[in-house]
Hints:
39% helix, Rossmann fold, 5-stranded antiparallel sheet, alpha/beta, 15 helices
Amino acid sequence: MSKPELVSAIQNEIAQNGPIPFARFMESALYHPEYGYYSSPGEKIGWEGDFYTSSSVHPIFGELLAKQLLQMGEILGDKTFTIVEAGAGLGTLCRDILNTIQKENVDLFEQCSYVIVEKSVFLKEKQQALLSPIFPKQLSWEAEIPQGLVGIVLSNELLDALPVHRLRVEKEAIQEIYVDWKDNTFIEVLRAPSTAKLTEYLKRLNISLDKPLELEINLQALDWLTSVGLALSSGFVITIDYGYPAADLYTSRRPKGTFLCYHQHKTSENPYEHIGEQDMTTHVDFTSVAYCGKSVGLNTIGFTDQMHFLMGLGIAQRMEGPGAKMHESEEAKKEFLAMKQLMNPADMGKTFKVLIQEKGISGDYKLDGLQFKSLNTLE
């Protein structure tokens, strides 16, 4: 079932303005202030929700990520240690990171300021209920990334849920998918691109468009990264998400693109059911994210997959203990299999990527999370 109030709101917008770009439909479905999927109450993440994130699979993800953040904090060498997490979900990643920092480096923990930037009022309340009693001194919530920031900006599965424009390309003719309302249902219609930014985006990538293809372009991801680069005075940006370099994303091997919906852990390609009750996602074009970052002073220092990132931070050593006990302990078996899920090359281990960028950091340093494998395919 879709939320009738949300369907009515979108229908009214179409009645007033005509067909709307799919990006606008997706924005309403996910982020309408009252009825959008992320804005309204209801479990989204975990077994009772619609999808899993790496941080909901096992705390080891946040614990190892904290090791990378600590190393970055030491490289920054500032008297303050500021981490900004954009889109913090239920707050579990923040909890696991701060717990680890407190155990590993008390001095940095005392200096630590952890800022959460969260659009969803519902999720912000969930985060505050979980985190404020544990870390009252370290945490704050802001509407935007603080200007002049010296620190680290972290996002985990943020960009994949931003609204995307969907295009259909055939014989090098580029049309955008719009959403209209007819015969009491939403339908898709093709029109000229709603902004010149879409054709400019494709021209810059210089990809082959000689075969019929549907694809997604995430202009909001570039807008977000631009805002990060402008706000950051010096520090690091860690972007974790599922996606590919442009050459692997925009290809005839994916003739229908990567758009998917998630509802109660089932996938669908139909955005016009469960409106306001299902997640919508697409894979991230990391080539364009890196390119955009460069324009605002963010230099790419590493791009790898989650498996090799976690290996560099010591997950193999952490798996040894539960691995040795898994045949005699159900708890150890559960822990080992959760870590294995994060590393699985057929799933999270290879599909999820880690892009690390820096601004204003001088000196010779190497990050542990990038020591095993770097995917040098973003140019």
